Amino acid sequence: MEKLAVIVPCYNEEAVIEESYRRTMAVLERLSNPVEIIYINDGSVDRTRFLLDDIAAKDSRVKVIHFSRNFGHQPAVTAGINNCDADLAVIIDADMQDPPELIPDLLALRARENANVVYCVRNSREGESFFKLFTSKMFYRVMNYMSEVQFPLDTGDFRLIDRKVMNEFNRFKERGKYIRGLISWVGFSQVPFYYEREARIAGETKYPLSKMLKFASTAMLYFSKKPLRLATSLGFISVVVGIILAVWFTLGKIYGFSNAEVGWTSIMTSIIFFGGVQLLTVGVLGQYVGILFDEIKARPEYIIDEKKNFS
After folding, report:
1. Residue pair 194/121 in contact by the 8 Å Cβ criterion
2. 83-142: per-residue pLDDT in tens?
């Protein structure tokens, strides 16, 4: 019988963690599989650590990983996968927006399709603003356009993966992981599961606009070289525009139709355009150099302070 683990990253989730445990374990106890829950405390500063330790002390099926500080959602999920010895794993957030009651359906679909990955596609997303819904849809579509690998649209990290996928994932050494992209990149048999995403049962979102932008930037730069090609294209366009302007002003000076000596507007437009292209190009290059710098330093993706119920 295949062992199932549920990987749950947590950051300041004191308002939901007990309900998360109760609902998730209620589902797992109805399964015939050996089960466990792996909570990763991503440096929470509220009572999340105390609550997780209390749950782990009462239930040996609950494993807990405490980070030394806040490293981020993706490193937390990575730690869960790295420390999982189960045959199957479900990745789910603690806020209950992704219902744990769907886990048996994911298992059934996986068995029926003989799949390695069952990724969950949101038909709807309750409790989220129009701005977040719109930017999320745009993000996935831009990512698919920019990347060499096609990603499923409107998905999150909520998914079921098997041991084969986990083994391949554990081979990845890059620090800035975009997990749903990496799992798509791995390949194997992957099938969608459609569901209605619920609103948070309590607490606040851990992805404000600043973190969403950073997440999108990491995903884009780690999975695509097209921004570099875009910078090259803009440079080429600026050269062409510069040549055309030079020819235009020269002929205008000779034949008297451009009033070149008066052309303050055209000069300022040219300066702003070329300066903008140069700054954009340098900025894109700087982002890639920054990524290389982080990778060369080879610092650990996360640091574990303490583990509970791990043998």
Report:
1. yes
2. 999 999 999 988 888 889 999 999 999 989 999 999 888 776 554 555 555 665 666 566
DSSP state letter for 83: T
Task: Write down how long the chain is.
Answer: 311
Task: Tell me the C-alpha distance between 156 and 197, whole Å.
Answer: 11
Contact 52, 21 (CB under 8 A): no
For residue 102, give both structure tokens. 């769907």
Q: Locate all alpha helices (DSSP H) within 29-84, ordered by sequence.
A: 48-58, 73-82
56: Cα separation from own chain's centroid: 28
Mean pLDDT for the stretch of residues 33-54: 92
d(CA 125, CA 197): 5
3-state secondary structure of 122: strand
pTM recorded for the entire structure: 0.69
DSSP run (H or E) holding 307: strand 304-308
Residue 308, beta-bridge partner list = 64
Give the pLDDT score at 23. 93
CA dist list (Å): 309 to 5, 37, 42, 43, 61: 14, 11, 17, 19, 8
Q: Residue 166: its pLDDT value, please?
A: 93
Residues 190 and 116: their CA atoms lie apart, in Å, by 6
CA dihedral 106, 155, 224, 149 (to 10 degrees): 50
122: CB partners within 8 A, 6+ apart: 154, 155, 156, 195, 196, 197
Q: Which residues of 35-154 form beta strands (DSSP E)?
A: 35-41, 62-67, 88-91, 117-125
